[in-house]
Each structure stands twice: as structure tokens, then as C-alpha cells.
Design goal:
The complex is a heterodimer of chains A (87) and B (964). Chain A is 10% helix and 38% strand. Chain A is mainly beta. Chain A has a single domain, classed as Folate-binding superfamily (Folate-binding fold, 2-Layer Sandwich). The longest helix of chain A has 9 residues, at 34-42. The radius of gyration of chain A is 14 Å and the shape is globular. By secondary structure, chain B is an alpha+beta fold. Among the domains of chain B are: 10-113, 2Fe-2S iron-sulphur cluster binding domain, sarcosine oxidase, alpha subunit, N-terminal domain (Ubiquitin-like (UB roll)), CATH 3.10.20.440; 160-286 and 409-462, FAD/NAD(P)-binding domain (3-Layer(bba) Sandwich); 472-542, Arc Repressor Mutant, subunit A (Orthogonal Bundle), CATH 1.10.10; 583-634 and 728-819, Probable tRNA modification gtpase trme, domain 1 (Gyrase A, domain 2, 2-Layer Sandwich), CATH 3.30.1360; 636-724, Aminomethyltransferase beta-barrel domains (Alpha-Beta Plaits, 2-Layer Sandwich); 867-950, Elongation Factor Tu (Ef-tu), domain 3. In chain B, 22% of the residues lie in helices and 28% in strands. In chain B, a hairpin with a 2-residue loop joins strand 32 (592-596) and strand 33. In chain B, helix 8 packs parallel to helix 9 (358-365) and helix 18 (612-625) packs across helix 23. The N and C termini of chain B lie far apart (95 Å). In chain B, 49% of the residues are buried. The chains are: A mainly beta (87), B alpha+beta (964). The interface between A and B is medium-sized, with 24 and 25 residues.
Chain lengths: 87, 964
Amino acid sequence: MLLIDCPYCGKRPEIEFSYGGEAHIARAPKDATDKEWTAFLYQRGNARGEHAERWRHVRGCGKFFNAVRNTVTDHFLTTYKAGEKRP
Amino acid sequence: MRLASGGRVDRAKPLSFVFDGKRYTGFQGDTVASALLANGVHLVGRSFKYHRPRGIMAAGAGEPNALFGIGRDEAHYTPNLTASQVMLYDGLVAESQNRSPSLERDTGSLIDRLWRFFPAGFYYKTFMWPRKAWTKLFEPRIREMAGLGRAPKAPDAARYGQIYAHCETLVIGAGPAGIAAALRAAAAGGRVILCDEQAEFGGSLLAENVAKIDGLPASDWLALSVAELQRLNVKMLPRSVAFGYFPHNMVGIAQDLTDYLGEPDTGIRGRLWQVRAGEVVVATGALERPMVFPDNDRPGIMLADSARVFVERYGVKPGTRAVVFTAHDEAYRAALALHEAGVEIAVIADLREAPAGGWVDKARAAGLLVRPGTVVTETSGHLRVTGVTLSTGEVVSCDLVLMSGGFTPSVHLFSQSRGKLKFDEALQIFVPGEPAEATRAVGAAAGAQTLAAALGEGYTVADLPDSGGGFLGAVPHGRDPATVRAFVDFQNDVTAKDLKLAMLEGFRSIEHVKRYTTTGMATDQGKTSNMNALGIVSEALGVPIPAIGTTTFRMPYTPIPFGLFAGYARGELFDPVRETPIHSWAKERGAVFEDVGQWKRARYFPNGDEDMNAAVTRECKAVRAGCGIFDASTLGKIEIVGPDAAEFLNRMYVNTWTKLKPGKLRYGVLLREDGFVLDDGVVGRMAEDRFHVTTTTGGAPRVLAMMEDYLQTEWPELKVWLTSTTEQWAVIAVQGPKAREILQHLVEGADISNAAFPHMSVAECKVAGVPARLFRVSFTGELGFEVNVPADHGRAVWEAIFASGGTTPYGTETMHVLRAEKGYIIVGQETDGTATPDDVGLSWAIGKTKPDYVGKRALARASMAAQDDRKQLVGVLTEDPGIVLEEGAHLVADPNQPVPMKMLGHITSSYWSGTLDRSIALAMVRKGRSRIGESFTVPLPDRNVKVTLTEPVFFDPEGVRINA
């Protein structure tokens, strides 16, 4: 079980969180082309290695935040609040 | 045979036990294996594939053969327990496995005579044809033969606990290295947990009669050290197997709490520890390897160091005349120990040309016969070994063979932590290399070859000669390889020849070799076999071992009962049950309940011995003719509050909310960003800045999570607060032409006349004296109200309304029929995650002029807008009004077309309508709206049913009743 450092509450076990997929995917504007819209809806990086992703401390403070996790080692490099730039 | 003295067993405490129906006696401190050996029992199992007689081979976790089903009855029965790990208790009942009718005469052993026809991959190669024989003949027979042990026939009667723990240092293994590491960690401060799979701490020290540590006999040092650990408040977990290493230094430990007492149900049987540690010290020791020589699997052939442990720890003599076959010095030590215990050592055959060192010298000095550069080429005996043939040509009779190929560090847990292994060329073993977590391996697990190295700095060890050696792979025996079997994996009956065959057939990856030959699989996961298999593959391919690598180590280290993982989550506690505030009333009334997610919902309220159809028909008619009362408390509810609440709803739902006045309701449709319907529900505007949102029963958490996501990450500038209120409100639906008449005298503070309170209104008032949010809303097509009151008052208000008389309680089944008669969809029943609002006839709900909402851009895609080929909601009437279609049945144009037929759509809802006195159905049909009036066929398994497509509203299409 992963140990996740919620930027609001501190380190908590994985069962308190829900995963939210890849981070920093901006909602495409309403005048986006079909291609851009498809990319926003369906296309993800699937990184091997460092991956910026969304988590929600759903059984805790309820906040969404972002994390950089190495998908090979499962080690978190950092966590940061939603809206902040990827460090 | 039991020695007169010696060992750690308590001869004053005899214990009686039963093995395969025969009664035996052992002592407190025995394992089942040592007790059986003390009674002269070597034959304990039949091998997996060939049903060959097998004996006890090891004194610990490496044992591949002695697997028993243990338990006094089926409710306390556990299969595949390792005899050398189960501590004896009085009254223990064990049975051997994989034999019929008995160990001595096993009919399955016929296969052993035909062994040449059962090479590696036999099953893959043989049962290819005829195809039809597979399901009827081959598979059932193979299943009968496959698998070790049997599942218990009764539910597990034991209870299990689970606990989380945190510490600065977790030490796994309480041998010398683990104890020394725990002492250091405890002295440095911080919480320390020390666990060991055995009942007694000490590991190898429990059978250490020679060495002195810091001037003390090893057993004295052990006792002092354990006392010191206690004084330092180290949390000590005996009988606790660290079975799995999980990310971020979490270790799973299976602790046996009462099994060893032999008194089931006196407490919880075991406990699952989930320990999060700052640092994990892996002190898991090493496992001795067998030698791979012809016929090396007869009962009486065992690992040399294990034989010494049986003598020195358990006071058991495992034979009378022994041959030793070794490539490691420890076997000389074992030979000496057995010699001193009165076992005649016939000869020590050493694979090495020039064995030397302290133990070899001692053995020679004791007069033991040593044959260097010699191998065992053959053994004899059936149910027990009777002799061996040496490469010198000598034939030696014996009833015991000790073998030692050296020691393999137990790197399982280190490897599970994703630490890298490195190959030590000098020692020819894999040892822990670069760790992936805060993990440190110590002692024999790290490749330490001496007790002094295992203990580390600060301790002195005396009187113990060093030892060394080792061999990987199959020993050269000079015999025709086609005629001999030298076993590598005893538990899975894999021989050296099988592995070589896999090489010949082109297998190269060790992971493929493992799966093809099954070496290293089953309950022991190759503890004794993996390294020898690697040695054979390396030699056959001419590739060095590190270039081949190891197979992946996976948890669990030893088998763990499922009950431990289930813990308390069994029976009633398996999953939470959600009951509404009115549940108890429905139960008293004799309602039949159904599960809707975790909710229990009243499905119907039978009168007397009514069946469901009769009850539902009666309930439906009662609602249409008078008034029904329905518990809708499970509806999901979200309170949305804030100055930007309306704007937030505008962006989330397809509807427009800005112009909805306080005191009014609106039916909302929520899409996913891909344009498909996710949820629906009625939303009430309680004030300019306050909305009472309802969702489907199952959709509430999903909807709230999605709203939170958009609010927090897309539009954090909006001033809106979301609160789940599902369980704060009890919801009582009062539906039917007489609903107003019945409710009116209970309502205070609101005029609910049709003029003042038309359909889709909401008011805050009191109902039966309780503050309420009263909705004028209908999911039945009738004049209807939904009374929302605080949950604690739910039952009282329900009873007050019911006491007015004239109301009939109805359940979810009637609710379904009534809404289907009106063509109201249920999200998840009519929709399947690929339906747009237009597909289900809801495009009227969309606020066309809104700049944006979730799903708007997706609906603009060509494929979503093209309406001519999408499935659309329609009604379906059968030609024969008495036939109720199956939900999920398909519609086709021509039932005589070849299979697979072109399917045009499917039935989504289908009921008997008592009101209309005929069946009705809803369906999603391609271009359905343009085909209304056309006839189709619904092919069912036993007949074809003619149907006609209709509008989806079957009852009161003008909506007169709802506005009454």
C-alpha cells in the first residue's frame, strides 16, 4: 500500500485516496477541433517513469491534488496543490 | 527414534496426535515432522505428478514433500500445511495428501511406471484432439488429478483479526543476525518490531551446540538476548511469517495466535499485521539445497543440516545408518552430530576433489570415511531408501541419505521490495544488491557465511570452524540420461531431464522454463529448487547464471489462509448494509426487500400469500385509483450552496438554471464530458443561493465526486459548497389522485392547492409537525408529492401519513412499472453509457443557448449529431398482450435470416401493466423514432415474438393526471 503525502493533511495510506488519472490536462476549449477534443478526452501519456497525476484525499480532506510518481518504482517524488505548476 | 536426552523438546509433556488414522506420541516443542521422525515415520506424502513415495526432507520452510491437511474437523481444516512448520499440540489430526487409498498403496503410482510417457509439457502436447473430448473427458480427469491437497468442505469456523502497526525498524527473522540487528536498533531508540515464523526465537541458534558467543554457549547468549530485547520494549512476534513486502516499506505479517494451542475457537486464530516501517531489516537466513542425483527423492533422503537440526534441536535420530552426499562442509558437521547421536555414518561422498577445512578435518579425526570426487549414481528402496551406489562402484546399504548442495540466501522479501539481486561469483549465490526501499539485508540472507559475520561487529564467536562449498545444478553421474530421474523440484516432480528437454524445445527465458516445466511453482515456490534449476539451464545453454537471472519472487512467502485476508469482513460484516429510516416499518409490514447497491429497498408489500405479480398489480392499481406511499429515501441528495450555485449548475447540467425561481423544481440531466448521460434527478431551488439536488440511488457518490472535481480543479473561482445530504433526509413519496386530499391536513405553512402549488413546485413547511421540504413531483404520472423530512423523523412522519388512511404502501417493483407506463427512463437501465440525451428523448432538457456545459462539445461531434443511425428510446407492444418479454432480448427485422442475425436494438425494460391489462416494454432501437408503427420480431430461445414499436408513453400521454 502506497504512502501518500497529502499537501493538506500529511502522509496517509493509499486506502484514503482515489486516483484521478494524468494531471495537467486542461479541458479543451469549446471551439476545439474534433482532433483536439479527442486528444483531451482520450489520449494520455502512459509514462514509464516520472508521471504527474491527480489524486483526491477522498476519505480525508476531500481535496484534489497532484503528485509526481515514478511508475516503475512507485516512489513519489513530490505532491503539490491543484493549480500549482509541476515542480 | 527419540534420543534419550538432548534437544529443546519437553520430555515431561507428551502429546498425542493422529496421522492418517494412526495414533502417535510426541513432545511439547516438536513439530509434526520431528514427532513423526521420532516415531520412525519417513513416508509422509506422494509426489504431485508421478505419485512417488516421499519423505520428510527439511526441518523448516523449505520442505517440499511433507504437506498435510490438518484440523480436527472440516470447519478447522487447512490443507497444504508444512509438517516441519506446524508445532505439535495434543489431539492434532493430520492426513497425508495426493494418495488413494493410502500412502503405502497408492493407485496413482501406476503413473510412475509410465513416467517416460509423461515428459515436461505432457499436458500441452497430448490432449490436443479430439477437441470435443476436452470438456467431457480430459479436463474433468485432469482436474481430479491436479492440485495438492483439498479445500475444506465446511466454512472456516475460525475468526481472524487485522491490525496496523508503525515502527522505526522492523526486523524480519529472529536468528542471530536478526536478534543482533534488533538489539542495535532498540539501543539506538525508536520503536522496533521483531518477527519470526517460528514459535521460538533463535533461528539457527536453536540447534547450535558448538559455538560460543561472547564466551557463552549459544543457547545462553540467546536467552540473555531475548530477555534484553524484552527489557528494551521490542515488540516481539513469534509464529509470525512476514509473507509479503509491499510498496513504501509496508510488510504483511501472518501471525498464528491459537492454532498451536489446539483449542479452536478459544480466541482469534490468526492476525494479519500490516506494518509500516522506517527501515526494514531482512534477516531471513538461508535455505539448504538438495543435490540433484539419480533417484534422489526416496523417503529417508534428506537435507544434511535439517537432519542435524532434528538431532540437536528435537532430540530425534532420523535413521540408523547414513550415507552423506555433499558439496558443502556443513554436511560434515551434520555427519558428526549424527555420529555422536549414534547414527552410523557409512560414507561421506564429496563431489569436490579435495574437501578441506575445519569440519572435514574433525570428521576425518572422528574416523568417518570420506570419498572425495565421488557422486551417488543410484539409490534403492521403495517406501524407504535401502542403499546407494557410488561412482566408485561401491554399493552401500543405508536407511538415511544426507545431502547438501550448499545454502541459498532467502532473498524473497528483499526481492519483493524490488531490490536488485547481484550474483556473487565466489559463493555462486544471488545476494541482495541495490535496495529499492529503506531495506537492509543482514546475516545469511545477505550471504554471510559465518556466525560471526551474521552477528556483525561487537560480538565474538569461538569454537565454530568456518565452512564453505556448494554446487548448483545436476551432478554428473555417467549414466544414460534417458533412464534416470534426478529430481530438481520435488514438489512439482520436475527432473533435470525435463529442464534439458525444455532447452531442446527452444525455451530460453527462465520465466518460460518455469511455466513450461512447472519448476519453482506450487506452495513452496521453488525454495529448494530454483537455484539448481538455474544451474542446469545455465549449463545447458552455456550462459552464465547472472545473464539468465532469477524468476520473480512473489508474495506470499509461505501459504496464508484466506480467512486472514478477509479478517472481520465476513457474513454480515462483509459489506455495509444501508437501511432507510422507514426500513423497520417495512420489515414489520412483511415487505420483501431487494439489494440496490448497499441499500436494502422494499420491493413489494405482499398481502397474505400474494406472489410478487399479484402484489405489484394490486399496488399499481391502488396508486392509479387512490393513493400510494413509497419510501424514496435512498435517492442521492446533494445540497449546493453559494453565490455561484446557479452558475455552477449551469456548467454541470445540460439544463439552464438561471431562470429557475426559488420554490420551483426542474428535472436535470447530467452528462459526462464525452456527451453520454451519467445521471438525472430533480433539482429544487430553495433560495437564490441554495439548491436541493437529487441523483439516482446508485449515482450519488459518483455525481458528488465529479462535481467536486470540476469545482476544485476547473472552476476554483466559483463560490460554491457541496454537501452530501443523502442520509440527512427521509423521502416519502405520496402518489395518486387522492394524494393531496390525504396530505393536506398534515401540512402547515404551505398552500398545496393546484393553483398555489402546481407540478414541479417546492416549499418549506411542516408535515405532521416536522420541518419539511415538500416537493410536488411525480415519478408515477399521477398527482404526487415527495415529503423530505430529517431522517430521524422519517418513520414518524411516514406513520402519520399512513394513519390518515387510504394509502397503500408500494415497493420498487411497482415504482418501476408505474414509471415505465409513463416512459420515464432509469439511468443505467435505458442508458448504458453510450446514450446521448437525444437518444433517450431528453433533448428538450438541453439549454440550447448556454455557452458551455459538461458534454456540450462532445455532443457537437458529427457522430453524436447524426441521428439516423443511433439507437433511440421507443415503446414496444407485443402482438400477444399476454407475453412479457425478457429484458435484454434483441429485436430483428427477419427472424429467418441466418445466425448471427442483424440486431436492431434491445429491450431495456419490460413489465406486466395491471393498469393497461397487458405487457409493455421500452427498447433502444436503431432509428427507432422513425420506425414507430413498424413490426419486428424478438427471437427468444423457445419462440419468436411479434412486436410493434410505439411511442414510449403508454399511459396518459397528455399528462392530465400529473397536473391535476
